[in-house]
Amino acid sequence: MRIDIISVLPDLLMSPLDHSIVKRAKDKGLVEVFIHNLRDYALDRNNRVDDYAFGFGAGMVLQIEPIDRLITQLKSEREYDEVIYTSPDGERFNQKMANNLSLCKNIIILCGHYKGVDQRVRDHFISKEISIGDFVLTGGELVAAMITDSMVRLLPGAIGDEQSALSDSFQDNLLAPPVYTRPANYKGWEVPAILLSGHERKIYEWEMEQAMERTKTLRPDLLNE
């Protein structure tokens, strides 16, 4: 997999994409992540990539020309499965979307900034718009890092135990059951006896019951999807 991230704040992406599972996946050659500074494609010597919005609205808008230059260059070198734009009014990101995106070969993620991008970028270059919630961030860099992490951890070989990813919350529209580790008894707080029984089928049934109960209580909306 190759992920190209377009940003006006590239340094903000360096740390989250160079640790843990993403770093191990990069080291193993499972994924390539390239961060592109949009200012390198600016048209003036001041590397300006934003301008005032037409009309009377406040705030700056990312210009179409630098974005066009960069995306067109990338597309001339390879085909992309998706060109994603991070935006508060995009489709809500979830585990199902992460699963689908993890199957892609090449992806571009354009990080939103300021008041957004010229609408013509969204009309002519973007194939998918993604939001992580009903709130606004300064820019889409942290969103891009989250999307990248959620995709990369699903790649075969990215984590030591691939079954672990398959049992995460939301994979089956259920929250994960509670988990415990040693010691089995701490200050009188005991691990459920079923988990110490060694009976695989009964443990599985208990975990499913717990997952269902937690989902009904905490996220009943998931059961309607």
Residue ranges: pLDDT <50 for 5 or more in a row? none
Strand order in the largest sheet: 2-1-6-5-7
What fold name goes in the CATH topology slot of the largest domain?
A: Alpha/beta knot
**Which percent range describes the beta-strand content?**
15-25%
- As a whole number of angstroms, the C-alpha radius of gyration is 21 Å
**Mean of all residue-level pLDDT scores:** 93
CATH class of the largest domain: Alpha Beta
**In total, how many domains does the architecture comprise?**
2
Question: How would you portray this structure in words?
Answer:
With 225 residues, the protein is of the alpha/beta class. It folds into 2 domains: 2-152, Alpha/beta knot (3-Layer(aba) Sandwich); 167-224, Trp Operon Repressor, Chain A, CATH 1.10.1270. It is built from 8 helices and 9 strands. It has helices at residues 11-14, 20-27, 64-77, 95-101, 119-124, 141-152, 162-166, 200-218, and strands at residues 2-7, 32-37, 50-52, 60-62, 82-92, 106-110, 128-131, 185-186, 189-190. The chain has a 5-stranded parallel beta sheet, with helices on both faces. A two-stranded antiparallel ribbon has the order 3-4. It has a two-stranded antiparallel ribbon with strand order 8-9. Strand 5 (82-92), helix 4 (95-101) and strand 6 (106-110) form a beta-alpha-beta unit. The longest helix has 19 residues, at 200-218.
